[in-house]
Amino acid sequence: MKLAIAVLRDRLGYQGVSLGVVALVASAALAVAVSGTRERIVAAEARDLQASLSQVLPERFADNDLLADTLEIGNGDGSNKRVYLARRQGEVAAAIFQTSARGYAGDVLVLVGIDRAGVLLGARVLKHAETPGLGDKIDLAKSPWILSFNGLSLATLPAEKWAVKKDGGVFDQMAGATITPRAVVKAVKEGLDFFAAHRAEILQGGKTP
């Protein structure tokens, strides 16, 4: 009887150790899988961001790594705006950053590229929740409307003209979705205002990394 109990104890102890080893191996495998997934997600996000940045700059405009060359500038509300610097031979030639305004169904997030003279090189809507078939015409894939900002600046277009035509401005509105283009116009204009206010800091841009 005593022998049987001893054998049972040994078996139970062995099983406990085995389960512990299995759990440890499983945890390690899960950690490796999670780490690998996270790395792939980060890499995919970097590729998407690089693609977005290139859309608001002319082809082969910059010769630096845009993702690695950034500047943080205060928004005045306690938050910072990340500015991506496009350089040519070490000199800042343009700045790219996000700006936003309230649309019909939420904030419309816009990416703008502005050259050192304050001229808009390009604008793209990154995110919105506007009505499909109406407000979504702010997307380049749906309409070329967003291209109407190219080449404009605060110097070439008076402040009162930064509005849709219904409000006395120069930008076309969209049938049934006037609020949406208003938001984009406002966001782009505020982006140009931000650049003008911080132009010296942006063009200094620190040293070439």
Output the keywords.
2 domains; alpha+beta; 5-stranded antiparallel β-sheet; 209 residues; globular; 3 helices
Task: Describe, in plain words, how this protein is organized in 3D.
There is one protein chain. The chain has helices spanning 2-55, 179-197, 199-204; strands spanning 70-74, 80-88, 91-102, 107-115, 120-127. The chain has 209 residues and is of the alpha+beta class. It has two domains: 1-55; 70-204, no CATH class. It has a five-stranded antiparallel beta sheet with strand order 1-2-3-4-5. The longest helix is centred in the N-terminal third of the chain and has 54 residues, at 2-55. The protein is globular, with a radius of gyration of 27 Å. The N and C termini lie far apart (77 Å).
Low-confidence stretches: none
Number of domains: 2
Q: Work out the radius of gyration.
A: 27 Å
Please list the strands of the largest sheet in the order they lie side by side. 1-2-3-4-5
User: What's the helix count?
Assistant: 3
How many beta-strand segments? Answer: 5
Mean pLDDT, all residues: 84
Query: How much β-strand is present in the residues?
Result: 15-25%
What does the main sheet amount to? 5 strands, antiparallel
Label the overall shape. globular
User: Helicity range of the residues?
Assistant: 25-40%
Pfam families: FMN_bind
GO cellular component, one term: plasma membrane
Modified residues (FMN phosphoryl threonine): 178
Family: Belongs to the RnfG family.
